[in-house]
Amino acid sequence: MLFSNAYKFDRQTLQQIRIRRRKILVPWLICLAMGAIGGYTLCWLSFETPKLPRTYDELIVMVDGAENELVSPAAIYEYMKEIGIRYPEIVWSQVALESGFKSNICIENYNYFGMKKATSRPNTQTGENIGHATYRNWKMSVLDYALWQASTGVYRLNSEEEYFTYLNARYAEDPNYALKVKEIRSDFARYLERYEAQSKNKKPNERKKERSMPRLLKHIHL
Q1: What CA–CA distance (Å, rounded) separates 181 from 152?
Q2: Residue range 115-145, pLDDT digits in tens
Q3: Are 167 and 86 in contact (CB under 8 A)?
Q4: What contacts 135, CB < 8 A, 6 or more positions away?
Q5: Which residues pair with 127 in a beta bridge?
Q6: Which of 49, 141, 144, 210 could crosslink 135 through cysteines, CB 3.0-4.6 Å?
Q7: What phi and psi values does residue 12 have, to the nearest 5 degrees?
Q8: What whole-number distance in Å separates Cα of residue 192 and Cα of residue 211?
Q9: Strands 58-63 and 216-221
Q10: CB atoms within 10 A of CB 107
């Protein structure tokens, strides 16, 4: 048996003295226990809790009644980039196709994407008119598109080509929708310049002005 014949030499009596098993086993057991505790602690510290995919972030948005007087194709594009919309050039091309920045839904509803009224996802919509969602101003329309992106898993896509495929399958009923958007996207700079020039040439009375409203903060979950 282990440690059955363990001895130590006593210098005073010059004799071999037998060591009790308990005096040997206890230190061993203490070492084993400390080793087990240390190993468990290291495993716990190195273990990383799996993170769930981020679906929504909080975004604080300033809403101003004067925003609708400042809208332009270039301003819409810059705002898309500012709030982190994925593939902003494609999304802007959707606006050009959906509304041309001058459709009735765009002018009356501030709806630049032809969005229908949402039923289950987070949104910035205020109601419905002409069969489409209404918004307080153009920024709310762009933000609503960002919310649509966040709710559909677009963040998992890795390229513009994948996004075109996704749009064709999920966004519109027209089977050639993605091809039409892609045509605008392929010559993005020219289309942006053209629509921006048209916007600057509008007469003041051609712009619909929203009645004054107080400035306020909105918390929107993206």
Answers
A1: 19
A2: 999 988 999 999 999 999 999 999 999 999 9
A3: no
A4: 109, 110, 111, 124, 125, 126, 141, 144
A5: 134
A6: 141
A7: -75, -45
A8: 28
A9: antiparallel
A10: 15
